[in-house]
C-alpha cells in the first residue's frame, strides 16, 4: 500500500466526497478550486476556537483578537490549508480539542479526539495527555469512534499509524531504530522543520533567504524562553497550568514528528521533518507566542508586541507573494491567495 493518501484516515475524504459529487459535472479545474475554498472554510474554524481558547486564558478580548489576527497573518499557514488535504480538517479538529482541553470541563473532548483520530494519525499524541489527566471517559469515547481504523492498521502493517515509512522502519527492528537515532543529524532535521513551518512555497519547496527564517526563529525562541522561565520559577496558577498543558501538547506532538523524521531517515537517508504538520496546533502555537510576549513585555505592551509580530508575518506574506510565488504561478492564483489571507484577517477582526 504505497499510495500515500490511501494510508490516511478517511473522515476528511468522506466529508469532501459530498460536495465533490454535487460538482461532478463541473470542469475539473473548477471543481478543484471550489473544493479548495471549502477546505479553507473548514480550516477557518481555527479562528473562533482560537478566540475562545485565548479568552479563556487571558480574559481580555483585545489579546484574544490579536491571537486571531496573528494566526490569520501567517502565510505558511494559508498555503497549507489552501489545498485539498486532510491537514485542513486536522487544523479545525485540533483547534476544537485545544479549546476543550483549556476549558477542562468540555463534554465534547472524546468526540473531538475521535474525529481527530479519523483525520490524521498524529492525533495519537493527544492520548497520553488524556491518560495523565484521567479523562478516561473521553478516551473511551474516542477509541469507540476511531479504534476500528487503528486496529485495522495494526493487523495489516504491524503499526498503529499504518504509514508505510513507519511500517518499513518497524520491520527493521528496534536495534536499527536506535542506530538511526544515533546517526540522525538532529540539528539539520530541526532546521528543516523550522523552515517548512515558517514558510515554504507549497510543494514546489521554494524557500526564503536564510536570515529571514532566523528572524522568526529568534522571536519564537525568546517567547519559548520566557514561558520556560515563568513556568519554572513562578507558582502555577490557573492560567499557568493551562499554559503548561499547551506546552505539553506541543512537546508530545514534537516527539511524534521526531519519530516520523526518524522513519524518513531510515527509509530515504535524508534529514527532514515536515514542519507544516505543526499547523494543526496553530491555536496552541499562537496562544503560547502571545503568552511569551505577555511575560516579556507586560500587560501594557503585549498588544504592541503581538501587533509587531503580526506585521512581520504580513510583510513576509507580501514579499513571498509578489517576489517569489508570482514568478512561478499565474497572477490570478496569487490574487486569490492574497484575498483569502485578507478575508481571514477580517474574520478575526469581526469576531
Largest sheet: none
Contiguous uncertain segments of 5+ residues: none
Query: Number of folding domains?
Result: 1
Helix content class = over 70%
Please trace the helix and strand order, writing H or E for each element.
Answer: HHHHHHHHHHHHHHHHH
Instruction: Please indicate the percent range of residues in DSSP E strands (runs of 2 or more).
Output: under 5%
Helical segment count: 17
* Whole-number mean pLDDT: 88
Using only C-alpha atoms, the radius of gyration works out to 20 Å
The dominant shape is: globular
How many beta-strand runs? 0
> Which structural class do the helices and strands define?
mainly alpha
Span from first to last CA?
44 Å
What does this structure look like?
The chain is mainly alpha-helical. It has one domain (28-350). It has 17 helices and no strands. The protein has helices at 11-22, 28-43, 46-58, 61-73, 75-81, 86-103, 109-117, 127-132, 136-157, 164-172, 174-183, 186-198, 210-233, 238-268, 282-297, 302-323, 331-350. The longest helix has 31 residues, at 238-268. It is globular. The chain starts with 10 loop residues before the first helix and ends with a helix.
Amino acid at each position: 500500500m504505497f499510495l500515500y493518501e490511501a494510508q490516511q484516515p478517511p473522515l476528511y475524504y468522506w466529508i469532501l466526497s459530498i460536495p465533490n459529487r454535487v460538482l461532478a459535472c463541473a470542469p475539473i479545474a473548477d471543481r478543484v478550486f471550489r473544493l479548495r475554498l471549502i477546505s479553507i472554510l473548514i480550516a477557518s474554524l481555527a479562528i473562533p476556537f482560537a478566540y475562545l481558547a485565548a479568552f479563556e486564558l487571558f480574559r481580555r478580548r483585545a489579546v484574544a483578537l490579536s491571537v486571531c489576527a496573528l494566526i490569520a497573518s501567517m502565510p505558511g499557514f494559508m498555503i497549507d490549508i489552501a489545498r485539498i488535504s486532510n491537514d485542513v480538517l486536522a487544523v479545525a479538529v485540533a483547534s476544537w480539542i485545544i479549546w476543550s482541553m483549556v476549558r477542562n470541563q468540555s463534554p465534547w473532548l472524546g468526540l473531538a479526539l475521535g474525529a481527530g483520530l479519523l483525520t490524521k494519525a498524529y492525533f495519537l499524541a493527544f492520548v497520553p495527555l488524556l491518560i495523565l489527566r484521567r479523562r478516561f471517559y473521553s478516551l473511551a469515547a474516542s477509541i469507540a469512534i476511531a479504534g476500528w481504523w487503528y486496529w485495522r492498521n495494526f493487523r495489516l502493517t504491524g503499526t498503529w499509524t499504518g504509514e508505510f515509512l513507519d511500517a518499513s522502519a518497524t520491520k527493521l527492528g528496534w536495534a536499527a531504530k536506535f542506530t538511526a537515532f544515533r546517526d540522525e543529524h538532529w540539528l539539520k532535521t530541526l532546521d528543516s522543520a523550522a523552515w517548512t513551518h515558517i514558510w515554504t512555497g507549497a510543494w514546489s519547496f521554494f524557500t526564503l533567504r536564510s536570515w529571514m527564517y532566523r528572524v522568526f526563529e529568534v522571536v519564537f525562541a525568546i517567547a519559548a524562553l520566557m514561558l520556560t522561565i515563568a513556568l519554572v520559577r513562578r507558582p502555577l496558577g490557573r492560567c499557568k497550568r493551562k499554559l503548561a498543558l499547551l506546552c505539553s501538547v506541543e512537546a508530545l506532538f514534537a516527539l511524534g514528528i521526531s519519530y516520523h523524521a526518524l522513519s524518513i531517515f531510515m527509509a530515504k537517508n535524508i534529514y527532514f521533518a515536515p514542519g507544516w504538520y505543526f499547523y494543526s496546533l496553530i491555536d496552541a502555537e499562537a496562544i503560547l507566542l502571545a503568552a511569551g510576549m505577555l511575560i516579556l513585555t507586560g500587560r501594557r505592551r503585549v498588544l504592541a508586541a503581538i501587533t509587531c509580530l503580526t506585521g512581520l508575518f504580513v510583510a513576509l506574506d507580501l514579499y513571498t507573494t509578489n517576489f517569489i510565488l508570482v514568478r512561478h504561478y499565474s497572477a490570478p492564483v496569487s490574487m486569490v491567495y492574497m484575498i483569502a489571507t485578507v478575508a481571514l484577517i477580517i474574520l478575526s477582526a469581526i469576531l
